[in-house]
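Researcher: Let's continue the batch. This sequence belongs to Site-specific integrase, and it's 318 residues. Same format as the previous ones, please.
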Amino acid sequence: MDGAQRLRPSTVSSYRKNIRLYIDPYLGAQPVARLTGPMVDAWMRQLEVSGRADGTGGLSARTVRYVFTILRAALSDAVRQGRLAVDPTDRATPPSPSEARPPEMQAWTAAQLARFLRWADADDPDLAMGWRLLAATGMRRAEALASRWRDVDLDAGRLQVRRSVGTVKDKGAGQRLVEGPTRSGQSRVVDLDGGTVAALRVYRAGRGQVSVDLVRDFALVLSGIDGSHRHPERFSRCFTAQVVRARRALGEDQLPVIRLHDLRHTHATLLLADGVPVKVVSERLGHANATITLTVYQHVHPGTGREAADRFAALLDD
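Model: Same format as before. Here are the structure tokens for Site-specific integrase:
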């Protein structure tokens, strides 16, 4: 694809994996010029029925739509370069956006978040610092795991989000972690609250007692004890496991189950519900624009339309 050199390494790796698993085995032998819309439709239906690489069934609508977008991007490039007259994906019908909707977002209340963080800090302070940082900044997992101490200004209470980390698969050599740009390709500055700054100071002091190398400017804030990147997926699994333990300790009715990514949603939801301007929240999250934030979190203020109507009526009464 034309834009491959502009993509993050982890994105390129994901594209290659999906091409290898879901496109080449089905369409690889078919000359591109003979590919038709109905053939693309038949391929997607086959993926939905029996597309799983382990042979246990079909792919989700979300995965099928994702693989379709990869194929569409490649064929669009071919049309643009004059190697293909017509893009057959223009005449195909992938799963709709509603069918491919990601898992519903979950968010903790402020009380639930505070309760969990207190418990997690007593259970495993190292991991708890990661959960607090994600919840307090709205950073993506990949961004937090790539943050270094040189990005953190504890005196000013600020953190610069400059990069992200992801996995790429080397042929015959398994996976490796590589750093790349943030999702937007731009860095941003996120202000830290006093409690998070204090927690970072305590955390850094403790890490420094283990090894001075863990607190040098270039060191990763949330590194493993050997100073290396934590693996993103294993980091998420640690969170899931700790939530399970916390629910046992605190009571399942006190703490709903959420994913690690939902700490980002919790951050945004709590701020928006408290009246923080959408533009400010959008900047903290690293969204390309505030419209994305409004679209994703339109559920936060279901009653704002009624409030607007009441305010307008009050103006007329005045």
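Researcher: Any comment?
Model: The chain has a mean pLDDT of 89.
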